[in-house]
Amino acid sequence: MYALSDPVRARIFAELARAQYPQNCSAFVFHGKLKLPKSTLSQHFKILREAGLIRSERKGVELKNSTRCSELRKRFGAMVPEILLAYASESNESKR
């Protein structure tokens, strides 16, 4: 739960879940209107990885990240998608 308590990590996880192929952290340097340093992104990815929400595979010098959605769904049911929906609806309300 801690890993998804941060809106930036929740958004990273949601974007990884929507991606059709694994992403490296450089794909998230521009996070919405914010520009996040790679060191900050690396820390967010580390927290997501240690929580078991994503897996990272080394491809040369890069780490390619993907979600573990199917495994999470078996273990937690709809809880993770509901957390992401809550963030999305909260974000949409704040834009109004």
Spatial extent as radius of gyration: 13 Å
Q: What is the number of helical segments per DSSP (H or I, 4+ residues)?
A: 4
Sheet with the most strands, sense and barrel status = 2 strands, antiparallel
Strand order of the largest sheet: 1-2
Shape: globular
Ends apart, CA distance between termini: 28 Å
Class from secondary-structure proportions: alpha+beta
Mean pLDDT: 83
What fraction, in percent, of the residue positions are helical? Answer: 40-55%
Number of separate strands: 4
Would you kindly provide a brief summary of this structure?
The chain is built from four helices and four strands. It has 96 residues and is an alpha+beta fold.
What does this protein structure show overall?
Helix 1 (7-18) packs across helix 2. It is built from four helices and four strands; from the N terminus they run αββαββαα. The protein has helices spanning 7-18, 38-50, 69-76, 79-94; strands at 30-31, 34-35, 54-59, 62-67. It starts with 6 loop residues before the first helix and ends with a helix. Strand 3 and strand 4 form a beta hairpin. It is α+β, with helices and mostly antiparallel strands. A two-stranded antiparallel sheet has the order 1-2.
